[in-house]
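[job 0412] stage=complex_fold ligand=guanine status=START
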Amino acid sequence: MAAPGPEKIFPVSWEQFHRDARALAWRLTADAEAVGGFKAIVSVTRGGLVPAAIVARELDIRVIETVCVASYHDYDTQGAMTVLKEVAASVAALGGGQGRGVLIVDDLVDTGGTARCVRAMLPEAHFATVYAKPQGRPLVDTFVTEVSQDTWIYFPWDMGLAFQPPIREGAAG
Ligand SMILES: O=P(O)(O)OC[C@H]1O[C@H](OP(=O)(O)OP(=O)(O)O)[C@H](O)[C@@H]1O
Ligand SMILES: Nc1nc2[nH]cnc2c(=O)[nH]1
Ligand SMILES: [Mg+2]
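[job 0412] stage=complex_fold status=DONE, emitting structure tokens
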């Protein structure tokens, strides 16, 4: 569960997200070689779709599957974990049915609830996220940037351009 009303925010632009997702792909190159190239990506929807596209392009992975999990029903309040769609049988059967050679991609790990749920489906898969918070970090094999547990990450697809009042006006209020 993410703490309601986290103290800090970490807004991420499209450029920064692209850079960080590419950095994730760089970090995954040795792991990819170790398994003779990842056979498939399983993207954890919806947040994992964007980094999965970037990593797939960089590592030349052509088989992209989704696992659809929902738990944050009220944007920052976590509820029960619901699996809306499982991994397709053809991908679940790869690597002896345990996920070896499969790369699972999500945008972030927070409490680790989502990662724990997806890992149970493919225990030997490699789990990668762009961002990680301390509580979920032990569940991830590779990530790029750690933020504190009381930080809420705002992704570029959740934001838009908006007027910013001058700093001095805010300070006067
Ligand atoms: O480690 P946890 O505490 O489980 O949180 C991490 C998950 O939360 C977010 O997904 P969310 O359930 O909000 O759905 P979305 O990807 O569709 O936005 C994020 O994309 C991760 O999948
Ligand atoms: N956008 C976003 N979704 C989350 N789900 C769990 N933690 C987070 C977070 O920090 N940001
Ligand atoms: Mg998600």
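The chain has a mean pLDDT of 93.
[job 0412] exit 0
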